[in-house]
Structure prediction request, 141 residues.
Amino acid sequence: MPLKILIGKPIPSEWEYVNKRGERKFVKANYSLMRTDGKIDGIALVLEDITDLKLREMVLRENEQFLENIIENIPDMIFVKSADELKFERVNRAVEFIWGYERDELIGKTDYDFFTREEADFYTQNDREVLHKKELHDIIE
Prediction:
């Protein structure tokens, strides 16, 4: 039986606190029930210091948000396509603005859904070349 049910209210498995020296700390609690002959005698609690992990996660999230802001606000079109089917997986605001489609109209589609056959063939050929050579290149429109 989970400890949370026995006590009657949720116990957080991780929490943050400030120690006596004013340092921000994070701990993870690992609970185990102690039993004798099927009867619960007590609870064993082990606290693990996960401060370094949590601080690294925070920095990573901040960096991801920073890069996300750059990608979304750069005036150039940025899109990501799947390598196998060349379907749009991600686009930035510039793509929406320049092409006039909403993001959800683009995701999961290919160039053939938006361009003439000739144009889509051109873009597909360029995409395949990039994947084959493993080098990026600009397409001048």
